[in-house]
UniProtKB/TrEMBL annotation, chain A:
Lineage: Bacteria, Bacillati, Actinomycetota, Actinomycetes, Streptosporangiales
Keywords tagged on the record: Membrane, Transmembrane, Transmembrane helix
Transmembrane segments: 49-72, 84-103, 129-154, 166-189, 201-222, 260-280
Keyword field contains Transmembrane: yes
Record-given protein name: ABC transporter permease
From TrEMBL, chain B:
Pfam family, any one: ABC2_membrane_2
Entry annotated with the keyword Hydrolase: no
TM regions (residue ranges): 19-39, 51-73, 93-122, 128-150, 157-176, 205-225
Keywords linked to the UniProt accession: Membrane, Transmembrane, Transmembrane helix
Matches recorded under PANTHER family: INTEGRAL MEMBRANE PROTEIN-RELATED, MEMBRANE PROTEIN
Claim: Oxidoreductase is one of the keywords in the record: no
Name this protein carries in UniProt: ABC transporter permease subunit
Length: 288, 238
């Protein structure tokens, strides 16, 4: 019998003995990490180019508008129409960034690693959704707030457009929720980033083209009421119609929207549908 | 042209979820054309609007983006392009083969549905259907080449392509007439205008500029893509 020579050296690994933050903190950390990632913070320089370029484009009309207010002493751009005017930029931002949030985790099948922690599927989806919503809201709210601050500083004759500003801020939040849920739902169906970008932008281009074509054709054959309904196919006009219904602002398309609670109901239904799709997709991904 | 590479690329394009978008978009175009006919807008004016804003302005760039980047960008993204590049096939031949695949997909999924959609609305009246189908075919080929080049040059090919199609061709082209000269969509419209005799439709770019520009852009994009693929570096992005 040989002498026992094997020993276990203590090489200094330590257990974590600090406080264990629970499920909420994990979800919050995931949301903050995702939000930073949407703007390319904590990622390579190259992935910062597109989000910050789009932020700069969003701020451009605001800067021009403030300059016009300061020099010509007249208001240049209304708050309620800002989201509709900048819809292409918002759509590109959504299409470019929402696949980043969902695609890599699906592609490398790391979802089970998240779920082995206190985070549940709903927490995960909620964190991603919150990150995209906050990002889109910031994209809209920062230029609007800058414009409002500019208006207050320039001090135009007449009262400031506080009511319009509040209306546009509330609807910026609604737009952010709507766009984020649609964008993430569409992007989560493919683990490939390129295809995710293509499907989100295809959705936007398709809906905006359908609404434009049907609006034009229905007007030309004299069915004005139906033409106004056709506009609601475009998500940005849907938001604008809710804004008109809630706050009585000027419609951005110059034609008006169908009256009554229907635009708001459609908005809620679309958000619910997108969220259901998103959650079902992740239920499936988590079980595989 | 390498048939094996072409075969593999076809299988990659038609066997995945990519096919869904490739089929859904043209179907949507035909569906919209059918709906327009139902609501009684079957005039030449409607057909021209549908073709200009929807077929050429929306569906064509989207399909070009999906087909053009789809033939090569996913392979570069997940690194499997290495297996292809390590074979004794010249890189320009690889890009050319992939371009042929993308261009043929554009002919099937963009040009043919464009013709069907226009035919549904106005039949063959004043050559609108023929004109726009031909325009979609040539512009589809040009889009395929340009977006293939983008797929080789950058990891964010689809995003950059979207920005080109939406911001340059859509927004800037809408306000700045000079920008329209350098837009593939407008070149497609020039070709369509040449064939059709419709009074509702006038292209902004003369055909004498559009056709040479289209040829130059396609050939140049292919040559540059072949060159870029010779010195491709596979570095992780994230």
């Amino acid at each position: 019998m040989t002498e026992q020579t094997a020993i276990i050296h203590d090489i200094g690994y330590r257990h974590y003995e600090g406080p264990r933050l629970g499920r909420g903190s994990a979800a919050l950390a995931l949301a903050v990490h995702s939000l930073r990632g949407v703007f390319g913070l904590g990622r390579t320089t190259r992935s910062k180019i597109i989000p910050f370029l789009l932020v700069a484009i969003m701020l451009l009309p605001v800067v021009v508008s403030i300059a016009v207010m300061a020099l010509l002493k007249q208001s240049a751009m209304g708050y309620p129409s800002y989201a509709v005017t900048m819809q292409a930029v918002l759509a590109i931002f959504l299409a470019a960034q929402s696949p980043y949030l969902v695609a890599p985790d699906l592609r490398f099948r790391v979802l089970p690693l998240y779920l082995s922690r206190p985070v549940t599927v709903l927490d995960y989806v909620g964190a991603k959704l919150a990150a995209m919503t906050v990002a889109l809201f910031l994209l809209l709210a920062v230029p609007l707030t800058v414009l409002y601050a500019g208006e207050l500083l320039v001090d135009l004759p007449g009262p400031p457009h506080t009511r319009d500003y509040i209306a546009s801020m509330v609807c910026a939040l609604l737009a952010a929720v709507l766009l984020a849920s649609i964008g993430l739902a569409l992007a989560s169906f493919t683990p490939r980033r390129g295809l995710g970008v293509a499907s989100v932008i295809a959705f936007y281009l398709f809906t905006s083209a359908v609404s434009a074509v049907f609006f034009g054709v229905l007007l030309s054959v004299g069915r004005d009421a139906a033409a106004k309904w056709a506009l609601l196919v475009n998500p940005f006009f849907l938001i604008d119609s809710v804004q008109v219904a809630l706050f009585g602002t000027e419609p951005s398309n110059g034609e008006g929207y169908p009256a009554g609670p229907w635009p708001a109901l459609i908005l809620v239904a679309v958000i619910a549908l997108a969220l259901t799709g998103l959650i079902m997709r992740y239920r499936k991904a988590a079980s595989s | 042209m390498n048939t094996v590479v072409a075969d593999i690329t076809y299988r990659a394009m038609l066997g995945r979820k990519r096919i869904l978008l490739l089929v859904l978009l043209p179907l949507a175009l035909i569906g919209v054309a059918g709906l327009l006919r139902l609501i009684g807008g079957s005039s030449e004016d409607t057909a021209v609007t549908l073709m200009k804003t929807f077929a050429i302005g929306t569906i064509l760039p989207l399909l070009g983006l999906i087909a053009g980047t789809g033939v090569i960008a996913p392979e570069i993204e997940d690194g499997t392009i290495m297996h292809l590049l390590s074979k004794p096939i010249s890189r320009p031949v690889i890009t050319f083969t992939k371009f042929v695949v993308a261009a043929s997909l554009m002919a099937v999924f963009a040009a043919v549905p464009t013709f069907i959609a226009a035919f549904l609305v106005v039949r063959t009246e004043s050559g609108v259907a023929y004109g726009f189908a031909l325009g979609a075919l040539f512009a589809g080929v040009a889009y395929a080449a340009v977006f293939l080049l983008l797929g080789v040059v950058t990891r964010h090919a689809v995003t950059v392509g979207v920005i080109y199609a939406l911001v340059w061709e859509g927004l800037v082209g809408g306000y700045v007439p000079g920008a329209r000269k350098f837009s593939i969509q407008q070149w497609a419209q020039s070709i369509a205008d040449q064939v059709s005799s419709s009074a509702f439709f006038k292209a902004d770019v003369p055909i004498g500029f559009a056709v040479p520009a289209m040829v130059i852009v396609t050939v140049a994009a292919l040559l540059i893509a072949g060159q870029r693929l010779r010195g491709l570096s596979l570095t992780g992005d994230e």
